Amino acid sequence: MEQEPTGLYITLLVLCVILSAMISGSEAALLSLHRAKVRAMVRRGVSGAKTASQLVENPEAYLPTILLINNLVNTAAAALATAIALSIVSNQQQAVLLATFAVTSILLLFGEAIPKSIGVRYPDIVTIIFARPIWILRRILYPITGVLNFISKRILVIFGSSDSRQVTEDELRSMIMLVRDSGAITEVEANLLDRVFRFGDRQIREVMTPRIELVFIERGTTLDEFFDIFAKFPHSRFPVSSSKDENDIVAVLSSKDVLREFSSKRIAENSDVTTLSRPVIFVPETKPVVDLLGELQRSGQEMVVAVDEFGQIAGIATMTQLFEEVMGPINEDILADEDFFVLNDTTYLVDGGARITDVNDRLDILIPDGEYETLGGFLVEVLGRIPVIGDEYRLGEIQMSISRMRGMRVGRVRIIIPTESLVQNDDLNN
Predict the structure, then answer these.
(1) Vertex 414, ends 410 and 418: CA angle to 5°?
(2) I want to staple 341 with a disulfide (CB 3.0 to 4.6 A). Which of 243, 287, 288, 349 is the partner?
(3) Low-confidence ranges of the chain (pLDDT < 50)
(4) Are 413 and 402 a contacting pair, CB within 8 Å?
(5) Distance CA 7, CA 1 (A)
(6) Sheet arrangement for strand 217-218
(7) Contacts of 12 (CB under 8 A, 6+ apart)
(8) How far apart are the C-alpha atoms of 415 and 421, rounded to whole Å?
(9) At 58, which helix (H) or strand (E)?
(10) How far apart are CA 102 and CA 85, in angstroms?
């Protein structure tokens, strides 16, 4: 007769552990499942999705039910374990210690850790399975949970807490990915939204052009000297230093300003191009890019110089680089709309995509025909590989060098045609 209550207690204890596991797993699943995913399941007509949606959309409604049941079950499990231990061990203190250790270990492993791990890993499946039972239990226990919920809300109001739920950045990103997977937005749009979130976390040092990649121009550089530099490095802007010391940046020179003045013949070949430079702003390299963007907009500047903690030049950041963090790569090639640009009487910058026939006609040279149509294709053919910046090739007296690449494609080619070659070509044409 004494074994019957013990056997019954063991059976009830097992049921309590199973019920605790179900409640814990469903709680973890409901808290892990994103609202956007539940709505997608509702649209697909998944069985039980509507009930799951009611719980996920209003977590305050089901959490008191889950907490109440879990506490009741765990308390019952502790009482049953104590009763079982007392029937096995005559010493009361030893029985209590044995029951405490046993029920804690069992509930922690089988009632919490394992079921919650499953709930987090498979939140949609677990939620669909247990949504209906939780909804029914909520209706049954509403008189109790309603009072508990009312009391908890009043306490939150006392401490100044709001009922509104704050959506985290991770949740928003997950929603974007779910909407993308559903086809409501494109991959490009999803990437754009993701860049917006990353933008707020960036510092200048993460987006700037590092010092090692900068090309400096000294104050007093003439137009001819500038074109020699620009032919090798056709950048849109150049930091201007007052001396050989590259840490002494005093201004920034826009290539567009120089080319505009040159095209209008308002600047001579021996003129100091740095007179066209603009003031520069110095900022710490740890400055958030969001703050920098606002500062650039207010100041009207397009470039800043970033300095490290020791006051040394760390790099430069432009407005274009900040926009690229959100919009993706932007073509800032100042010669993007010009296939041919004349630097001086013998030097030209030619787009790698210019057709061979156009190059021959415009520059009055003779690049031989072949299985290529563009200047870039010709250089790939004669070099026998994908070119890199600085590669050179001589066609007779004509010197060609790669000054810019666009990925695997030749972007800009500097062509130097000696005066003697031009005279010879004129003689041949005549």
Answers:
(1) 145
(2) 349
(3) 1-4, 334-337, 422-430
(4) yes
(5) 10
(6) 217-218, 237-241, 249-254
(7) 76, 80
(8) 13
(9) none
(10) 9
Contact criterion met (CB below 8 Å) for 382 and 393: yes
Tokens of 348: 């030209």
- Residue 316: phi, psi to the nearest 5? -130, 155
The pLDDT of residue 423: 42
Q: 340-429: what fold?
A: 3.30.465
Among candidate residues 27, 239, 260, 65, the one with its CA nearest the CA of residue 149:
65
Query: What is the C-alpha to C-alpha distance for residues 332 and 335, in angstroms, rounded to an integer?
Result: 9
Name the nearest CA neighbour of 416 among 401, 399, 394, 395: 399
Distance, CA of 307 to CA of 208 (rounded, Å): 11
Q: Residue 168: what pLDDT?
A: 60
In Å, what is the CA distance from 99 to each residue of 2, 7, 42, 49, 288? 19, 16, 45, 40, 56
- Among 332, 328, 312, 307, smallest CA distance to 254 is for 332
Take residue 191 and report the two structure tokens written for it. 């990437």
Check if the beta carbon of residue 24 is closer than 8 Å to that of residue 112. Answer: yes
The neighbouring-strand residues paired with 241 are: 218, 249
CATH fold label, 204-327: CBS-domain (3.10.580)
pLDDT of residue 37: 74
pTM score: 0.44
Q: Does residue 404 sit in helix, strand or coil?
A: strand
Closest residue by Cα to residue 358 from 336, 371, 346, 340: 340
Length of the chain: 430
**Distance between CA atoms of 352 and 355, rounded to whole angstroms?**
8
| Main-chain dihedrals φ then ψ at residue 366, nearest 5 degrees | -130, 90
User: Do residues 20 and 111 make contact, with C-beta atoms less than 8 angstroms apart?
Assistant: yes
